[in-house]
Amino acid sequence: MDKIIAGAVGSFISCYVCTMLITGRLLYRQEHLKIVNYIIILAAVPLLRIGGSFNIIYKIIYVISIYTIIINLIYKKGFIFSSIICVLAYSIGLLCDVINSFIYLTIFNIDIVYIKQHPYLTYSMYFTFFLIVLIISRFIRYGNLFDEIEDFIFKKNLFSAIQYISFFVLFTVILAYIISVQPYLSKQHLLSTALLVLFIIMNITYFIQIKISTKSKYDYDNIYNYTNEVEKLAKQLSAQEHEYKNRLIGIEALVENKQYDDSLEFINDILSVQNKKVNLNLTNYDNIYDVILKKLLIEKTARALGEGIKINTDIRTQIKDINVPNIVLNDIVSIIFDNAIDASSKSKERIIDIMIDEDEDEINIIIANTYSKIIEEVVIYHDWYFSKGIFKGNGLSILKQIEKDNLNIIIDTSITEDLFIQEINIFNAKETI
């Protein structure tokens, strides 16, 4: 009866070590915190005890099969991937068992046969085996290594994966058989143990090489896709530039011929301006006498209201002359307002606040908007910072360049918990250039 209980305890510890302790470290999962996993291992103990009477080769294959099923149930990785992890975990567990036996034979000078005849020594050996596995498992730090291995395995055809599993299972079975039948500490036993260590190292090296290969392919795919996007964008920009130049020629001809109504209609057709039924009564843009700034604010406000964004405006004084070139003013306001609309439309509150003030020395334009996530201020003007996808975030770096080229313009960016705020300070206001 004592031997039956000791055997059951040994089966439970061995199963736990290979399916949860080592495998959990390999997959970077803390499954030992779930009670249901212990129930699965307890349920497997009678099945493992049945395999105790098998021939050593069949016994090892049987045990690895049971462990694979348990790993699949616990980690839900699929039978093929569970088999690969099981072989490696079983190999490490086998090595720990060999180290444990070596300690008792050399340090304690106790024969293994004698240990099996005395249950209390058997329990002691189980305890030291678990302790050895626990120590060795602390050195297993692979992070997401096996996630990439899993992707690689599933991308290969099924036959190749079965070949790989069959080879490593067979090799593990042969090594385990040789180690178990050879006299302890004999040359054959030590050589088999050395081969087991090499086998584990070879497996880990192979997995690391797969990770490197997978990462290289992933990087190559990213570069390839990035290059294609650049090429497409370059073609689109070239076509748009040609198109816009042709349209400007048409507008220029209408203006030179004093066909102002026709030129406005031409421009509206280009902008695809529709009569939007939005409420602009709450805005006091009548205080803005700069026609470009006023037109931009009306158009952008109409767009924002059409997208369900609430606009709060505070035009504190009459805004007449702005000391920047018209094209610079157009670019600054357009970029900041467009970004504000895009950001606030993705937030819960969907609000844009506009405040414009003028005194003797400067004009202040503040546009603040709600946003859905924190934007890092340190990279907000970086040329390669894309806040809304490939190349779409370059407007912010254009603002930085405008500020650099115009000494009388300062653009400050600040972020609060609720608002993304950009303030434009234009000094020495005078007649527009």
In terms of topology, how is this protein built?
Layout: H1 2-27, H2 35-50, H3 56-75, H4 79-106, H5 112-116, H6 119-137, H7 145-155, H8 158-181, H9 187-256, H10 260-271, H11 291-306, E1 310-315, H12 326-345, E2 351-358, E3 362-370, H13 395-405, E4 409-415, E5 419-427
Descriptive account of the structure:
With 433 residues, the chain is α+β, with helices and mostly antiparallel strands. It has 13 helices and 5 strands. The protein has helices spanning 2-27, 35-50, 56-75, 79-106, 112-116, 119-137, 145-155, 158-181, 187-256, 260-271, 291-306, 326-345, 395-405, and strands at 310-315, 351-358, 362-370, 409-415, 419-427. A 5-stranded mixed sheet has the order 1-2-3-5-4, covered by helices on one side. Helix 7 crosses helix 9 and helix 11 runs parallel beside helix 12 (326-345). The longest helix has 70 residues, at 187-256. It is elongated, with a radius of gyration of 36 Å. The N and C termini lie far apart (102 Å). Residues 273-282, 374-393 and 429-433 have low confidence and may be disordered.
Sum this structure up briefly.
The chain has helices at 2-27, 35-50, 56-75, 79-106, 112-116, 119-137, 145-155, 158-181, 187-256, 260-271, 291-306, 326-345, 395-405; strands at residues 310-315, 351-358, 362-370, 409-415, 419-427. The chain is an alpha+beta fold and 433 residues long. Strands 1-2-3-5-4 form a five-stranded mixed sheet, covered by helices on one side.
